[in-house]
Structure formats: C-alpha cells, structure tokens
Amino acid sequence: MHDLKWSEREKKIAHSVFEAALQQELAETMTKFKEMAGRVEKPDDMWAVEGWLAHERHGIDTKYDFRYSQLVIVFGKLLRERRITKQQLEGLGEDKLSEIGRIAAL
Fold first, then answer.
1. Residue 87 counted as domain residue
2. Of the candidates 89, 19, 87, 22, which has an alpha carbon nearest to the alpha carbon of residue 56?
3. Position 37 in a domain
C-alpha cells in the first residue's frame, strides 16, 4: 500500500471523505458527551465521563490517520463501520478501491 500513487483528484476526494467522516464521528461523540455530562450528579460520575472521553479520543486519534500510505486502511475500516459509502469513494483508482474493499471485508 505504500507504493500507491495518489493523483491530485484522488487526494481531493480522499480529503473530503476523510474530513466528512471525522467531523461526523466527532459530532456523535460530542452529542454523547453532552448527554453523559448532563446526567452527572456526583464526582465519581464526572470521572467516569472523563474516562469515557479519553477512551473515545484515543480511538478517534488512532483511527483517523491521514497519511496517504494509511488511507486505504482507514477507508476500509470506515467502510466496514458504515461511516462512509462506496459512492463517496467514487473517483479513486481501481487499485485503491479494491484494497479498500478487501480491508472492509475483513
């Protein structure tokens, strides 16, 4: 996957898909955080929310890696999680799409 070449058009598509998925996941996380924070009644509840938030941040930071050498893996995982669709990836080369599909199927 390190030898995949990304055209300027593919880079624009990849950036758009990546950012949309990231922003959507961050929005979902923020909504859940607000719900959880709204139910906090005692200090232990507050620390539980903090722990959950730290765990979510780690997961998001690990998942969303915008290095071109990693994008087919990232997109494969996002496709498997149904955070993106195949239609959003239209315009990427067949070499990338087949790798993304293979990873999504794992």
1. yes
2. 22
3. no
What confidence category does residue 2 fall into, taking pLDDT thresholds of 50, 70 and 90? Answer: low
Q: For 81, list phi and psi in degrees, rounded to 5.
A: -80, -5
Residue 3, domain member (yes or no): no
User: How many domains in the chain?
Assistant: 1
Instruction: Find out whether 104 and 79 touch, Cβ atoms under 8 Å.
Output: yes
* Residue 1 included in any domain: no
Question: Is the separation of the CB atoms in 102 and 76 below 8 Å?
Answer: yes
Summarised one tens digit per residue, pLDDT across range 5-28 is 999 999 999 999 999 999 999 999
Domain residues for the domain of 13 are 8-32+43-104
3-state secondary structure of 11: helix
* pLDDT tens-digit series, residues 38-79: 999 999 999 999 999 999 999 999 999 999 999 999 999 999
Q: Are 79 and 105 in contact (CB under 8 A)?
A: no
Q: Tokens 């990427």 label which residue?
A: 92
Amino acid making up residue 33 = F
